[in-house]
Amino acid sequence: MNREIQQFKAEFFKALAHPMRIRILEVLCEGDKNVNELQAILGSEGSAVSQQLAVLRSKNVVSGTKDGTSVIYSLRDPLIKDLLGVARQIFDNHLVDAISLLENIRNE
Hints:
With 108 residues, the chain is of the alpha+beta class. The chain has five helices and three strands. The longest helix is centred in the last third of the chain and has 29 residues, at 79-107.
């Protein structure tokens, strides 16, 4: 069972391992969007956005619901928002450590 969980985590984090996919998830944390809305917000062409959405869909990170001719994308699990928040806190902690180290070096 432990191996299965580790494998799931590895695959899940692989799905997050691209800056555009992270940005898509951050945008979807604010609410559901279709590809055109995501394109406009991200300032990226549709094929790139669609390609990254396909990866996120294949790993069950986002889901798509047909709405006429559009597909509306949403986070599959609202806890992804918390995960991204924790990642931001970890980044901030690393930044604080780097700033402290730089100040120590400058004071020597």
